[in-house]
Input
Amino acid sequence: MKCLDIPQHEDERYKVMKGREVHEEKSKINKEYLRKKLGCVAKEISVYLTSSMLHLRGEVDEVLSFEDGTLAPLDYKFAEYKDWVFQTHRYQSALYALLIMENYTKPVSRGYVCYVRSNNFIKEIPFCSADFEKAKILVKEILKIISRGYFPKKASSSAHCIGCCYKNICV
Output
């Protein structure tokens, strides 16, 4: 999209549009509800964060606060939980954690993903320093692709291509 100016047409994709509806709905209902089972003592909804140092920006669905002073991102996914966390979900959560740490100057040791199509099942993602390092490496790789204008490597498995809007033109 950035290199060849080929739009993703996200507004034509069912899962993207349904996911946006879910985000909109979740941001309006139960605004005061705290996830006490997780130990949450406060939350902020739809928090837009940026970092020029990390070359990142994004909107975290919820920033959860805990009694021990730590924070955590919570992200809603219009997806089913399949007994594992997808790498894309793990690294998106880690990137949100990096944004939270920089903007709030508080520690983040875990993130959460709420799988809407699995009855709102919430999966905790514990973070280690390797997760944050890998997330930063991914950002550097993306910036390199954008600055040099080349195609990234094709996915290792065609199963990764199912939801990709560029699968028909991928080399």
Q: What stands out?
A: The first strand starts at residue 40 and ends at 51. DSSP finds three helices and five strands in the chain. The chain has one domain: 10-161.
